[in-house]
Write a structure and sequence with these properties.
The protein has one helix and no strands. With 64 residues, the protein is mostly helical.
């Protein structure tokens, strides 16, 4: 019976450690994805700002 209990405790400990490690890895991955999305969003907004400035220059220009 002791062997069974030790095996069960080992299996449970391994499962808990695996779960904790997986959660940590997933959290790091999600953080990296969030950071990349923020960077891409900033780039898009920067391009939109530049386009708006160019459109303003074109629309504000006098047509001769």
């Amino acid at each position: 019976m002791i062997m069974y209990e030790e095996a069960l405790i080992t299996a449970l400990a391994t499962a808990v450690i695996t779960a904790i490690t997986t959660v940590g890895a997933n959290k790091a991955l999600l953080q990296r994805i969030t950071n990349q999305l923020d960077e891409l969003e900033n780039r898009v907004f920067d391009h939109e700002r530049r386009l708006s400035k160019l459109e303003g220059k074109i629309n504000g220009a006098k047509v001769v």
